[in-house]
């Protein structure tokens, strides 16, 4: 009896160590179709799987961005001597830019104001879960690019803005998963 108990205990310990040592990897289900649309889905899924993210630390926030994007700090923090309240992340092909404005409490993102040769084409304001959410799109008059933004603000004035500049709707779609990861990774800090 002791031999069986000892053997079962050893097997349980071995199983526990073996299962704890395994790495978890995300796998994408690939449809078994041969049309060009499914090939594009497979290619897009493979690209999303291979993206490695880096963490950027601003004055009052951290955010994850694709590691092959370049980083351009924009607005110096108004409440801290070091760090930035807004940053632009540019894709290696230059076809999209991710934008974040996340000050300590609130502020005005002067670096995304409407410029000469641009036109605001859409603007909506809604209340979602007690937050005021503004969404707007700015297009270049010559059609070379569009910029879309989403500003979220609380009653007390605390705000943040996410944005994406894109050269075409195809570019927007191509980088959609990375942009959503970027938005969802934001961590804001207070005092």
TrEMBL record:
PROSITE patterns assigned to the protein according to its UniProt record, in alphabetical order: PROKAR_LIPOPROTEIN (PS51257)
Region forming the signal peptide: 1-18
Annotated keywords: Signal
Name the UniProt record assigns to this protein: Lipocalin family protein
Source species: Marnyiella aurantia
Phylogenetic classification of the source organism: Bacteria, Pseudomonadati, Bacteroidota, Flavobacteriia, Flavobacteriales
